[in-house]
Design brief:
Elements: H1 3-13, E1 18-22, H2 28-35, E2 40-43, H3 47-61, E3 65-69, H4 73-76, H5 79-88, E4 92-98, H6 114-118, E5 124-127, H7 134-146, E6 152-158, H8 159-162, H9 183-195, E7 199-203, H10 205-209, H11 213-223, E8 227-229, E9 244-247, H12 255-262, E10 265-269, E11 286-291, E12 305-308, H13 311-321, H14 330-333, H15 336-343, H16 356-366, E13 372-375, H17 379-387, E14 396-397, H18 408-418, E15 424-429, H19 430-435, H20 440-445, E16 450-456, H21 461-469, H22 484-490, E17 494-497, H23 504-512, E18 517-523, H24 534-546
Parallel strand pairs: 1-2, 1-3, 3-4, 4-6, 5-6, 7-8, 7-10, 8-9, 10-11, 11-12, 13-14, 13-15, 15-16, 16-18, 17-18
């Protein structure tokens, strides 16, 4: 068969359902093969949106998401999304076109070394030099992308190779069972937990990728050991639990860190040091690393015991065999009450622009338990990670790895595409939202029901917070915004501007329960960011200790 057809059939054999992209003339044979296949092709307005959407498919399904671009500028536009998937451990395959490699037609026009560019930010990057190599190359790429630790892979398909003929056949992708840890290491873990005085569980990103919730819940319920989460570990366990201490949204000096400081053993379930970690470099503590792969040792993370293998099986074995002890959980959970008090401090505040605490509280009241939040990157991400309890797995999609602006909208689009029956809300700052707003047109064409909340402060709020915290002059971070209501209307969406804090909840309820795309322009008062400064929080925690 024709190489381009063989390539697409190989993707079908790997279970690919969607390809997102913006093709060029070098991929036209491949595009025509996709047209005749079972794979749905979704044309985006920018390659960056395509790769963010593909990465989100990988993140939510565990199976490779696929993005397509042409050569040159199309390929360079993929780079941020590729890095996003690689650093965030999301299975992603990007396919790029290239000029003929056997006979030059146009010299070096648009030609750069795309494979060389992709190699440092992928698990694998190759050029296909023969049609006969397509089945094994696609098989290996998908396998590499999906195996722990997941990430990005890249295949370059030159225009002339795509036109070749081959007698090869697609390879059916066989799922690989993850290894399980041996009994000796389980015994060592149990001894450490059973002899600890104040253990605490910290749930990280890897636990959110697989179905570990049932086994984790069984372990928590049996032992009564409190738990905290990293930002990307939110929702693995229900955060309405009385054993939930909090999320490490800040680097240190918050109530959750005070509890971690007090603990003598941290059970790190699925922790990945790519996340900005909680402060863990305490010499007197023990750390147990439970993950699919060995720990990446760093100054801030050096576990004493490593349990490498399937997380669910490790937790099951621990639950079955652990001997319950009189652990001191109360001293750790004592920090939960003042944290909740701090979080709810502005719940009923009617000042306008809206306070971040009030915004998060209102959002949680309106959002269904299984609703999905897609967060762009900005100051609100810290407020939401800290103050917004997640009840279901992957119900808060945030990026605490590459932490790139501009991803919120395409990630929300992909989440809605995969979850038609769930409410999906995108939360973006006015800076990040404008970066990828062209693909509002794609959302409209896909007939997605989507609510986008644009938090408006006319500046890059998080960096302004850092600037102020360093006692530097306010400089270089302000901008003016378009009229978001008119902008929404120009894309065929509904735009609403909020002028009073008390109008936000009814507006959000109406938007969530109406078809189409709704963009809510919500001014926010980020002067509250100073409440998250380390000195203020440290003073509050010390005051609580005295009482």
């Amino acid at each position: 068969m024709k190489a381009s057809v063989l390539f697409v059939k190989s993707l079908e054999s790997a279970g690919v359902k969607y390809i997102f992209g913006l093709p060029g003339e070098e991929n036209l044979a491949l595009l025509d093969a996709i047209r005749k296949s079972s794979i749905r092709f979704i044309t985006t307005r920018d390659e960056q949106a395509a790769v963010f959407m593909a990465a989100t498919v990988g993140r939510l399904t565990g199976k490779v998401g696929v993005a397509l671009s042409t050569l040159g500028p199309g390929a360079t536009n993929l780079v941020t999304g590729v890095a996003y998937a690689q650093l965030g451990a999301m299975p992603l395959l990007v396919i790029t076109g290239q000029k003929p490699i056997k006979k030059s037609k146009q010299g070096k026009f648009q030609v750069i070394d795309v494979v060389g560019m992709m190699k440092p930010i992928t698990k694998m990057a190759v050029t296909i030099i023969s049609a006969d190599r397509i089945p094994t190359t696609v098989y290996q790429a998908v396998r590499m992308a999906e195996l722990e630790r997941p990430g990005a892979v890249h295949i370059e398909l030159p225009e002339d190779i795509a036109e070749e003929e081959s007698d090869s056949e697609p390879i059916i992708l066989e799922r690989v069972r993850r290894p399980i840890p041996d009994q000796k290491i389980i015994d060592k873990v149990l001894q450490a937990v059973e002899t600890a005085k104040s253990p605490v569980i910290v749930i990280g990103a890897s636990a959110n990728r697989k179905l570990v919730r049932n086994q984790l819940r069984s372990f928590i319920n049996k032992t009564g050991i409190p738990f905290a989460t990293t930002q990307m570990g939110k929702g693995v366990e229900d955060e309405s639990s009385d054993l939930y201490i909090g999320t490490t949204a800040l680097s240190d000096q918050d109530y959750v860190h005070a509890a971690l400081d007090k603990a003598d053993l941290l059970i790190m379930v699925g922790h990945d040091i790519v996340e900005k970690p909680p402060t863990l470099a305490h010499k007197h503590k023990k750390y147990i690393h439970i993950n699919f792969y060995p720990a990446d040792i760093d100054e801030v993370y050096s576990p004493n015991i490593e349990v490498v293998g399937d997380i669910s099986h490790s937790l099951w074995a621990m639950t079955e065999q652990i001997k319950l002890q009189p652990w001191d959980s109360e001293s750790l959970l004592a920090y939960r009450k003042p944290l909740l008090k701090d979080i709810s401090s502005k719940d009923n505040n009617l000042e306008f622009p809206i306070k971040p605490q009030r915004f998060v509280s209102d959002l949680r009241k309106v959002m269904p338990k299984d609703g999905i939040l897609s967060l762009d990157n900005g100051m609100y991400k810290l407020w939401l990670a800290r103050n917004y309890p997640a009840y279901e797995q992957n119900s808060v999609l945030l990026d605490n790895a590459l932490a790139t602006m501009g991803a919120g909208l395409p990630v929300g689009m992909a989440a809605k595409l995969l979850n038609h029956d769930k409410k999906v809300i995108v939360v973006a700052g006015d800076g990040g939202f404008v970066m990828n707003l062209a693909d509002l047109a794609t959302a409209k064409e896909l007939k997605l029901d989507l609510v986008i909340i644009v938090l408006k402060d006319n500046g890059y709020g998080m960096i302004k917070w850092k600037q102020g915290d360093m006692n530097l002059a306010d400089f270089g971070l302000d901008f003016t915004n378009p009229d978001f209501v008119k902008l929404a209307e120009s894309f065929g969406a509904t735009g609403i501007r909020i002028d009073r804090t008390e109008d936000f909840v009814p507006t959000l309820k109406t938007a969530m329960n109406s078809p189409g795309i709704h963009i809510i322009d919500l001014p926010i008062d980020y002067s509250e960011n100073k409440q998250l400064s380390h000195s203020k929080l440290k003073a509050k925690i010390e005051s609580e200790k005295e009482h």
